[in-house]
Amino acid sequence: MMTDVAESNGSLARPQAEGTGSDPGDPRTGTAEPLAAARIAETRRRIDEIDGQLIELWLERARLSQEVGATRMASGGTRLVLSREQEILERFRTALGADGTQVALLLLRAGRGPL
Ligand SMILES: O=C(O)C(=O)C[C@]1(C(=O)O)C=C[C@@H](O)C=C1
């Protein structure tokens, strides 16, 4: 499947076009070379495991964030704590660069909702 990807500059980029002159072989792996295809399939199994864990962690984090917000608001506190959000944004930016900031913004939104 060809899927557009949002680049950090806001433009949409197409992944490297299929059919750039080389033999795609099996379209599921993108190679005609059996050893490479086997290695790709094996590595993809690990990628799928990691993606599953990321999804679980994403959902768990969102639930915990909502719990913290509900506890604070039920006690008369604020919905948001912006200094805490800054800490989180900085942590992700330090570890992952500008894309880390984007990830952290999405993580925060998944928990407390849009600003
Ligand atoms: O840590 C908190 O106080 C939370 O409410 C959780 C959280 C987060 O998702 O990390 C969400 C909203 C706040 O503005 C800050 C952080």
From TrEMBL:
InterPro entries: Chorismate_II_sf, Chorismate_mutase_highGC-bac, CM_dom_sf, CM_II_prokaryot. Residues 1-11 have a biased composition (Polar residues). Keywords: Isomerase. Pfam families: CM_2. The keyword Isomerase applies. Residues 34-115 form the Chorismate mutase domain. It comes from the Bacteria. GO terms for molecular function: chorismate mutase activity. This is Chorismate mutase. It comes from Micromonospora endolithica.
